[in-house]
Amino acid sequence: MIDYGMDGKVALVTGAAGGIGRAAALAFARSGASVLVCDVSEAGGRETVALIEAAGQGKAAFQHSDVSKAEDVKAMVAAAVDTFGRLDFAFNNAGVNSITANEYDDDVWARSIGVNLTGVMMCMREESEAMLKTGGGAIVNTASMNGVVGNPAQPAYTAGKHGVVGLTRHGALRWAAAGIRVNAVCPGVIDTAMTEQATANPRARAMIESMTPMGRMGQPEEIAEAVVWLCSDAASFITGVPLLIDGGATAI
Ligand SMILES: NC(=O)c1ccc[n+]([C@@H]2O[C@H](COP(=O)([O-])OP(=O)(O)OC[C@H]3O[C@@H](n4cnc5c(N)ncnc54)[C@H](O)[C@@H]3O)[C@@H](O)[C@H]2O)c1
């Protein structure tokens, strides 16, 4: 694990109650940043804060926030500034998957797009305003490999994640001269609560693993490391990039 020297910096992570978001919150803290842990799950979010405190690196606080609600997103960014004084890094990672009988159902579409795409837009809107007040920062959005290649089973998830890649490129161009870099991570299949249902059956898991050239699922920490690196000065000339982290799945 690399320490990127983020002492005095402040990071906000959405969807940080578990999975990729928790791993990223811990990784930011390991590099010395103060972290606002945001999620709809209070229990999981507070557990992430406790893990950071137990590790004794960085400071952390929990903020209940539903990223599909504009008022929550506004309050979330205000909380980062009120609690820690500024906002330098934002990881817009909260997301929902859907495996339903009718993926073209209006409610399935609205919920998926509301969290996965509109949520990211609203986060970027508020975060950029806060970052511009202190001369810039870095935003990383969680898309998916389904933001780069098609998925025949999930229209809303696929469209939403393609939208996140588009928003990322938009933000990179809009704020490049103002000092905010905007990138996306595009994970392949990662071992988290989101994929639990699909991988609980050992045969299904083996099939999913066989579809990845590296022959395994990714771990949340393998995404988190890239997120913190993208926010760090080590990535100072990188913006507008959808970074595939998928064990080679889309190289086929
Ligand atoms: N796991 C994978 O294989 C995979 C692959 C590609 C992309 N992703 C993306 O990675 C991100 C993180 O997923 P994960 O795999 O860690 O799953 P996860 O289910 O462990 O984490 C998602 C988190 O988001 C939170 N959340 C859901 N809706 C929210 C909302 N409206 N507001 C705030 N928080 C909300 C959940 O409570 C949860 O803590 C998601 O955007 C997901 O689409 C995951």
Report, as a whole number of angstroms, the end-to-end distance.
Answer: 29 Å
Quaternary organization: single chain
Largest sheet, in brief, is: 7 strands, parallel
SSE-based structural type: alpha/beta
Helical fraction equals 40-55%
Strand order of the largest sheet: 3-2-1-4-5-6-7
**CATH homologous superfamily label:** NAD(P)-binding Rossmann-like Domain
Instruction: Indicate the CATH topology.
Output: Rossmann fold
The average pLDDT score comes to 97
Order of helices and strands: EHEHEHEHEHEHHHE
Instruction: Give start-end ranges of low-pLDDT stretches.
Output: none
| Level-2 CATH architecture | 3-Layer(aba) Sandwich
Question: Helix and strand layout, with pairings?
Answer:
Elements: E1 10-14, H1 19-30, E2 34-39, H2 42-55, E3 60-64, H3 70-84, E4 89-92, H4 106-132, E5 137-142, H5 155-175, E6 180-187, H6 193-199, H7 202-210, H8 220-231, E7 242-245
Parallel strand pairs: 1-2, 1-4, 2-3, 4-5, 5-6, 6-7
Nicotinamide-adenine-dinucleotide (NAD) binds at residues 14-15, 17-21, 39-41, 44, 65-68, 93-96, 115, 142, 144, 187, 189-190, 192-195.
Descriptive report:
The chain is of the alpha/beta class and 252 residues long. It has a single domain, classed as 3-Layer(aba) Sandwich (Rossmann fold), CATH 3.40.50. It has helices spanning 19-30, 42-55, 70-84, 106-132, 155-175, 193-199, 202-210, 220-231; strands at 10-14, 34-39, 60-64, 89-92, 137-142, 180-187, 242-245. The protein has a 7-stranded parallel beta sheet with strand order 3-2-1-4-5-6-7, sandwiched between helices. The longest helix has 27 residues, at 106-132. Bound molecules: nicotinamide-adenine-dinucleotide (NAD).
